[in-house]
């Protein structure tokens, strides 16, 4: 069975996990976590009788490979969403420069055309002083509308009215491109949420099996090791070694210079 098939089989269970129960893979990459889950699945096969006698529902074990496949596919979809957002960000950066240039050009013309009307100049200045991403986009719309409302003054300076149409069009384009490039875009958030839900779904099974295995084999070191995360064990060892090293390495004179006398 393919990962896509696993994903499709489990998607309803995955998205049913409520927000307050969702966990994210902070300490272990999903590829490593899935591989350890499969290793656990094979390891516990010889212990079926002991584990089920202590209350473990064996259907959870049988479901493990499918949950792993679903997580692989969810991770793939999440990475696709990340890649699309990064591409959208590059497009946004390129197109936003055009938006900034158009905005500056309109402000330049409006300042001259409206120079004798303090209320209009005030509106132009209000638009000009706000230069964040969202304000730049909405500024194009506001300038286009302001120009249409004051066409008589713009005609006197030979203004090119196609710029107002261009500003309105650029507003629509940048609004769409900004949404695609945002970390708050629906596709981006949904892909991340489902990846985390798929991880949570697998973790539920892993935790149940490991918990039971550690209880059953608490006095059997050989079998017990199969119910622990090798990745987390190695991570803790590396952390301990680094900590010990930082305590034993002497501080150099350059780092702790002798005080002037």
Produce the secondary structure layout:
Elements lengths: L2 H13 L14 H14 L4 H6 L4 H5 L1 H50 L4 H11 L4 H17 L1 H5 L6 H20 L4 H31 L4 H4 L5 H19 L13
Descriptive tags:
mainly alpha; single chain; 2 domains; 12 helices; 261 residues
Describe, in plain words, how this protein is organized in 3D.
This protein is 75% helix and 0% strand. The protein has helices at residues 3-15, 30-43, 48-53, 58-62, 64-113, 118-128, 133-149, 151-155, 162-181, 186-216, 221-224, 230-248. The model is unreliable at 251-261 (pLDDT under 50). It folds into two domains: 3-84 and 186-245, no CATH class; 88-181, no CATH class. It is built from twelve helices and no strands. α1 (3-15) crosses α10. The chain is mainly alpha-helical and 261 residues long.
Shape: elongated
Mean pLDDT over the full residue set: 91
Question: What is the string of SSEs from the N terminus onward?
Answer: HHHHHHHHHHHH
Overall domain count: 2
Assembly state: single chain
The proportion of residues in beta strands is under 5%
Explain briefly what this protein structure is.
75% of the residues lie in helices and 0% in strands.
């Amino acid at each position: 069975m393919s990962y896509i098939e696993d994903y499709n089989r489990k998607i309803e269970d995955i998205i049913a996990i409520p927000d307050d129960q969702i966990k994210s893979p902070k300490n272990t990459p999903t590829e490593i976590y899935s591989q350890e889950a499969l290793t656990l699945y094979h390891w516990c096969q010889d212990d079926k009788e002991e584990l089920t006698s202590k209350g473990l529902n064996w259907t959870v074990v049988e479901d493990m490979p499918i949950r792993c496949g679903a997580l692989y596919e969810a991770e793939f979809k999440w990475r696709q969403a990340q890649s699309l957002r990064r591409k959208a960000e590059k497009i946004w950066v390129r197109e936003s420069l055009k938006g900034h240039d158009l905005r500056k050009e309109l402000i330049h013309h409006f300042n001259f055309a409206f120079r004798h009307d303090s209320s209009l100049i005030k509106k132009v200045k209000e638009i000009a002083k706000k230069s964040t991403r969202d304000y730049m986009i909405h500024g194009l719309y506001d300038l286009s509308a302001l120009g249409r409302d004051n066409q008589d003054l713009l005609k006197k300076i030979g203004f090119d009215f196609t710029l107002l149409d261009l500003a309105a069009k650029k507003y629509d384009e940048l609004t769409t491109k900004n949404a695609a490039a945002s970390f708050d875009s629906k596709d981006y958030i949904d892909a991340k949420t489902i990846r985390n839900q798929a991880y949570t779904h697998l973790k539920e099974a892993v935790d149940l099996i490991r918990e039971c295995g550690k209880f059953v084999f608490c006095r059997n070191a050989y079998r017990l090791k199969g119910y622990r995360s090798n990745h987390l064990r190695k991570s803790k060892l590396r952390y301990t070694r680094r900590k010990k090293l930082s305590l034993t390495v002497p501080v150099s004179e350059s780092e702790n210079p002798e005080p002037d006398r």
